[in-house]
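Can anyone check this?
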Amino acid sequence: MQLAVGAVPSPFDCYLVNRGIKTLHLRMKAHSESAMSVAQWLEKDPRIERVLYPALESHPQHEIHKKQTSGMSGMLSFYLKGGLKESRTFLSALKITVEVGT
C-alpha cells in the first residue's frame, strides 16, 4: 500500500475514508440484497444453465457459506445455455449502466 498511495495518507484522504466507513454497512447490505435478487431472477430464466452464488440454497456449498459468513457477497456468476452463438447474442445485447453518485 505504501508504494501505491504513499507512507502517510493526507488529512483529506482520512476524512474521506472516515466518511465512507460510516455508511459502509448500509451500502454492503444493499449490494448483497441486489446480488441475491439478480441471482434468484437468473435462476428462473430458462436461458440460464446454472447460477453460481453461494447464498442461494441451490448452490452446492450453501451450507459451508452459512457456517462461515454472516452475510452475502455482491459477486455472482452464471452459465448460459447454448454455445458460442448464444453467448455472442447475449454479449451484444448487454448494456452496462453506471450510476453516478452525488
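Reply from J.R.: I decoded it. The first helix runs from residue 2 to 5.
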